[in-house]
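Re: the request from the purification team.
They wanted to know what the chain is likely to look like in 3D before they choose a buffer screen. I agreed to run a prediction and write the result into the notebook, where they can find it.
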Amino acid sequence: MRPGNSLTVVALACLLCACASKRGTPDNEPTLKTLAGREIAVEKDPGIASSEDKAIAAYRDFLAAAPRATQRAEALRRLGDLEMDGAENRYAATGQAHNGAPDYRPAIARYQDYLAAYPKDPGNDRVLYQLSRAQEQGGDLESSLRTLDRLVRDYPATGYRDEAQFRRGELLFTMRDYAKAEAAYGSVLKSESSAYQERALFMHGWSVFKQGRLEEALASFFGVLDLKVAGLEDEADLTAIAALSRADRELVEDTFRVTGLCLENLQGAESIPAFITSDTRRTYEFRVYQQLGELYLKQERVKDAADTYSLFARRNPLHAQAPVLQARVIEIYAQAGFDAQALNAKKEYVGRYGADSEFRRTNPQGWERAQPLVKTHLAELARRYHASAQKSKASADYQEAVHWYRSYLKAFPSEPDTAQNNFLLAELLFEDKHHAEAAVEYEKTAYGYPTHEKSADAGYAALLSYAALEKAAPAAELPALQRTDVASALRFAKTFGSDARTGPVLTHAAEQLYALNDTEQATSVAQQVLALQPPAAAAQRRVAWTVVAHTAFERGSFDRAEQAYGEVLALTPEKDAARADLTERLAASVYKQGEKARADGQARDAVAHFARVATVAPQSAVRATAQYDAAAQLIALKDWDAAARTLEDFRQRYPQHPLQGEVSTKLALAYSEKGQWGSAAAEFERLSAAKKEPEVARAALWQAAELYEKAGQRAPAAKAYERYLQQNPQPLELAVEARYRLAKIARQDGNSARELALMKDVFQADQAGGTERTARTRTLGATAALALAEPVLEGYRKVALVEPLAKQLKLKKTEMEKVLKAYAVAADYGVAEVTTAATFHTAALYQDFGKALMTSQRPKKLSKAELEQYNVMLEEQAFPFEEKATELHELNARRTANGIYDPWVQSSLKALAQLRPVRYGKSERSEGAIDAIR
């Protein structure tokens, strides 16, 4: 219960206890004199026990007991206040509510009863005010609004006017009656001393904003800003402004937020200047741009945000906050990844706030605050363009970076990192091939500042610059440049004597001499490096040995070069990338000794040197060539075993080497010389598969097949001939030859069916050869024709002359005719050895037919005389065949006159010795008949 309520209860109790009538003083009333000696004990007053509920009950009792008391109006009003407070307190203590809110209905009823009973009471403005509060708190907004409307209408001069109008505005705004809300807030604004001035102004702007009158709304919002932030310190962050309370800061932040929304829907930052109409507003103008920019950022409108910040800086280049806002532009672009825009913003920043800027002259204090960023951005610009130049190699980029480096050095000549930037400037000039300028800047960096971490590096880089100048210098200018280079080297050695690169600087002289082809002096200087005490670092000795090695190699002192390269490799870490090249050079030194020995005719020494390459540099590229050359020398020495071993190892070790194609040729030779026909054949087969030239591949495959055949390896020989036929159907002669040889292999394998099929292929291929036929194809075709007669002959032999003889005789004659035709085809080729064979077999066929007649089965039941007569008849029948056989054998025999004395002629002579022993029975040496196929 509020203290005021307790006093009300006490007053009410006093009022109810007062006596209405007056009585006179009796005669026996004590007088002052009698009272003077009386003792009175005063007990402590226990107070009046009271509570809200008791007070409410007391007021209710009073109203019920005194319907016409003059205090009734006050009691009724007070009862309404108590009911309202009680509702709030009960809700806070117990959560008892009506429709989710404290139950203000009793209070509302009391106030309404009061207004009904005393409609003309001058104090009804307070009752209306309380009633509107109770209605609003109870959720009856429309009733609350009507009560407030009555209040401001009936009591225009009430002390509650501003609050009532403000509350009207709030209710109307909530109900979206923005026009009336605007008017209500406007009524508050007419009272300049109102406590609701700032909030009303803010909400007035919102009411206008909701009606779409953005420029009018901005007038109100800028009014709020005039009251809250004008003239405050320049601290850009609102949260850092100590003069703003938390409530004020929230109001300002909300105002800036809605101001940004208005400006966004107008022309953005371009609309701001129209509202900066006084010096007061100029004090916080930068904040308007700032807050609008931040709004754009929240909306991810990066460019609009950056443009907003940048616009302030351009419009107010001399404002103390201009550098701050321009810096934010850079930050925004950088965070968004807009590198190009950030870069331009940095350029703009250093241009506006650099050492030569107007800003420095007009705002020294602001300029001082901006310098750290000027320094940072100058360094970043320099490095940025330095990096761009290194990537693009464009001179324009280099010169842009040079400009920013020089600007930095001019603006900050005494900064701790100035020497470092001077060094970077020199490096940039060097990269852009401005070597003369680079040398000047390097030496300035090395010797023009107190000693710093880049002093020695710069001194050394100056030497590199001179070296670059020497490379591009005309011959006439070179000596002078070299003297300058030497002087700089000596200055370096004197200034940085303990530097680890002192040795390399001396080595540089040796390298220069080597480059000038003064090998004698280069070696001498390199030896001086190697003789340094204490010894030069391993890296420097390595360079010195390298000079010695290169010089020796170029002089042809390959043994000395080998020793020097060995020293270099000993000083080179295992994982150093240079080892590979050095190893190659070492291998080349040994290889060159082999070449020299070979040129001098010392083949064995050459082989030894070539073989040594594998020992001293097993991973070198030249090792393969050396091993191949060693094999070639071994072949020249006819050391077939060693040559074969070397080539076999080469093949296994270097399967992808370009010389692999030659290995097969050389191995084939070595195997052939060793009589290893099968191995030689495999090499020719490999060679055939590897060669791209068709003729070479064909010849190699044919040779492989022949060597397999020679080695008695019939299966691989057959496969080789078959592959040859598949890949090379032409030329005809070799294709026919391949089929013929396959037939021979089939015969050796006992595969007569395949042999016959292949002989048929030989015959047909020759017959269809046309103009491509050769003497060899005809010979093979004739031989095949002769072979094809064999199965026909076998058919003839299978026919026996038995009863019924007439039928069998006819059949045997038919088969005989077939055989004769087959032999005739072979003989018609005109190939001597085939013709003689065909002639012999034809004669033998006639002879056999005669014998068959003579030995044929005799008819049964013949008498002795009939049998004799039958035998005579058979002799007469057989005689012509015997005569024909003799005639053919004689034809063969006469061929001796033409120098033909082959086995078939010899066989015919033997047959004649039996047929005509008197004439041909002489004893002759015979080599026997040799079947051309069998």
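For the purification team: Confidence is low (pLDDT under 50) at residues 1-27, 925-934.
Please add any questions underneath this entry.
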